[in-house]
Amino acid sequence: MMSDQFLRPDVVSSLTPLPPADRGRQVSESLAAYIQQAELAAGDRLPAERELMAALGVGRSTIREVIRQFQALGVMETRKGSGTYLVKPITSATIHMPLSVNMGSLRDALLQTLEVRRGIECEACMAAARRRTQDDILYISAALEEMERVHLQKGTAGKEDLAFHLAIYDATHNPLFRQLLEQMREAFESFWDTPFDRPDFARRSFPYHRTLFNAIVAQDTEAARRETIKILDIVEEDIKEMSK
């Protein structure tokens, strides 16, 4: 991790004052370029507000607004009394697509998210079936076996279930699948720990994870789509039933 004493002043000095036009966008682009040039990784500290203000020739409000935008995207986090830190590495070529869900009604938000997930997740599993490598199969298999072990031991396996699906998204070899679907799941991280205070939430979908894996191994895209739908149908039924 980069310490406060090693903020790469040689790289910070490459930041130059900006012309008076669309300052927010320009600051975002300059910060992304700086992160790339300085080779910052997740957990590294960014320069202090006053350093960014002086380097870019903008006011504190502009810097703070840009930091808030990056925080909303899950790219940065500010720790009180410590500074702003990078959560995910970015470059000047990174495209940000924030998701916004109204959490006024957990039930409605979950069903809305599930409706979108259905199409993306089916396509992801079909892509994984088409493109999976032998290494992908080993990775997914290990995640599935751990999920099955924990599920049989505890009757539920939320984190392990997530790891299994993330392994499938990685097997698509298209990073957008993982980014989009992971964002949707992260939005309900606390929910997935104990859904509706029911440890049996979506338990009926447990056997279909193995048949989904088998379809991906066989490179049977239609079977992969079919087994994914079975899992999501059960999730939808349980959301509706358990939220009454």
UniProtKB/TrEMBL annotation:
Domain HTH gntR-type per the UniProt entry, residue ranges: 21-89
Pfam families: FCD, GntR
Keyword tags: DNA-binding, Plasmid, Transcription, Transcription regulation
Keyword DNA damage recorded: no
Keyword Lyase: no
CDD domains recorded: WHTH_GntR
Alphabetical list of PANTHER family matching this protein: TRANSCRIPTIONAL REGULATOR, GNTR FAMILY (PTHR43537), UXU OPERON TRANSCRIPTIONAL REGULATOR (PTHR43537:SF5)
Protein name (record): FadR family transcriptional regulator
Organism listed in the record: Rhizobium rosettiformans
